[in-house]
Amino acid sequence: MIETLADAYTLFTGWLFEAWLQPALYALGLMDWADEAFEWMDFVIFGAIQVLVVMAVCLPLERWRPVERWESRRRVWTDVTYTLLVRLGILPMLGFVLFFAASARIEGWIADSGFVPPTLETFLPFLREAPLLALLFYIVVLDFAEYWRHRFQHMFGWWWALHSIHHAQTQMTFWTDDRNHVLDDAIAAAWFGIIAVLIGVPPGQFPVILMVLRLAESLSHANVRLDFGWLGERLVVSPRFHRLHHGLLSAGGTGKNYGVLLPVWDWIFGTADFRRDHYPRTGDPSAPRAYVEGGWLRQQAAGLREVWRALRGRRA
């Protein structure tokens, strides 16, 4: 099934490039940039698919049983801006500019040296014959890595200065998942990508893993009164479980419920809070005013100031 979806996606992007983008490049005399343009188009299409899937799942839920209703949704629209810029623009640009050249050099060095880095399938050979099982293993390993990245965001002062933008939202919805500083997103992309390469995630499975974790994260931020029951809450992160992480009293290093997809990591490392029927107000009381009320540009500028102050030891 995964291969079928991957083939269909490849056919669609190939048709779109040949029918629309390539003629435009030819007319503008930019055919020397054809390869780069195709990569960019691929980023944009996959980002648009992610947004549409998340909206299809989360919008009906938020309308069904919202935790909060607001007279003005201006702050929510700021998060919509984040999502559109991240999924359709800024993050792909950062990924291309910062990592494309570096990854090409690293891959060339590995090929020239003859070194074959060990992967997850090296240690678990039976995964080579079971692609679906391998996919589950990759998701579990990457989810474990995301748990620790999330904890580090709360542990280190300079990182929290950036991540606080995410926690400052007092009108949390599924759009809030993408409410991050550009530097924080760049670190997250590098973290996730490097670990995926190290454990040997196949190119065809990488988009599927991204989609699963993206949907899980967006759903966990949804403004919906929803839990998965006593057992389900311990198997998959729910909107209620993650809302406790965003509660007013959970900001900074004292937080709970860091898991992205699986609560088992919080359970193992003592950071789980399984209280039922508790949906606290969200926000970070210590956040700068710009983090709460500002638009995208104002929040990004404030983030740079705050991380600089944190690095110099001047941030409260």
Give unreliable regions as ranges.
none
Distance between the termini: 51 Å
Task: State the secondary-structure class.
Answer: mainly alpha
What is the helical fraction, as a range of percent?
Answer: 55-70%
Strand content: under 5%
Count all strands and give the number.
0
Overview of this protein structure:
With 316 residues, this protein is an all-alpha fold. The chain has one domain (2-311). Helix content is 66%, strand content 0%. It contains 14 helices and no strands. It is globular and about 50 Å long. The N and C termini lie far apart (51 Å).
Outline the secondary-structure elements.
Layout lengths: L1 H27 L5 H31 L9 H15 L1 H24 L6 H4 L7 H25 L1 H11 L14 H17 L7 H16 L7 H4 L6 H7 L18 H5 L20 H5 L2 H16 L5
Task: Tag the structure with descriptive keywords.
316 residues; mainly alpha; 14 helices; 66% helix
Short description:
With 316 residues, the chain is mostly helical. 66% of the residues lie in helices and 0% in strands. The mean pLDDT is 85.
